[in-house]
Amino acid sequence: MNILLVCSGNTCRSPLAAAILSDKLARLPEFADATVQSAGVAAWDGTPASEGSYLVALERGLDLSSHRARMLTADQVRDADLILTMGDAHARRVAELGGEQKVYLLAEYAGQPREDRDIPDPMGGDVAGYRETATLLDELLTAAIARMRAERRR
Questions:
Q1: Catalytic: 81?
Q2: Which CATH number fits domain 2-153: 3.40.1390.10, 3.40.50.1820, 3.40.50.2300, 3.30.450.40?
Q3: Candidate list 12, 13, 70, 118, residue with the active-site label
Q4: Domain spans of the chain?
Q5: 121 assigned to active site
Q6: Which listed residue (60, 117, 121, 131) is catalytic?
Q7: DSSP characters for 11-78?
Q8: 154 is catalytic
Q9: Per-residue pLDDT of the chain (154 residues; tens, 9 = 90+)
């Protein structure tokens, strides 16, 4: 299973979500075949993770030191089995690239639709905002894994 997480610049939300999801899936034998990647709809290829995401990842025992931003491509969309986006604009771009049958807003896929369906972007904010984003991502990804498990059993 190839899972792709998508945000805007691929420096804050999607790399942090990918690190959290990879860590969670690594503990589940039924997901031994899973790969988790991230990309951005407006990424500057090669940009490292934002300082806030890097620090919050470290606090959680995760390492984003080797992360480099990648612009979302049609090949990534084609190769993914499941694409989870941080917001509506990201989902629209995935659909434009041919992924309309496998793209979901993370909050919706997790069964926790929010009034504002987009995951807040902490870019430019203080570390507390990054921590809030990481906590929200952790909760939503836990619920998303439950759905993935249920769908695999079908």
A1: no
A2: 3.40.50.2300
A3: 13
A4: 2-153
A5: yes
A6: 121
A7: SSHHHHHHHHHHHHHHT-GGGTT-EEEEEETT--TTPBPPHHHHHHHHHTT---TT-B--B--HHHHH
A8: no
A9: 999 999 999 999 999 999 999 999 999 999 999 999 999 999 999 999 999 999 999 999 999 999 999 999 999 999 999 999 999 999 999 999 999 999 999 999 999 876 767 999 999 999 999 999 999 999 999 999 999 999 988 7
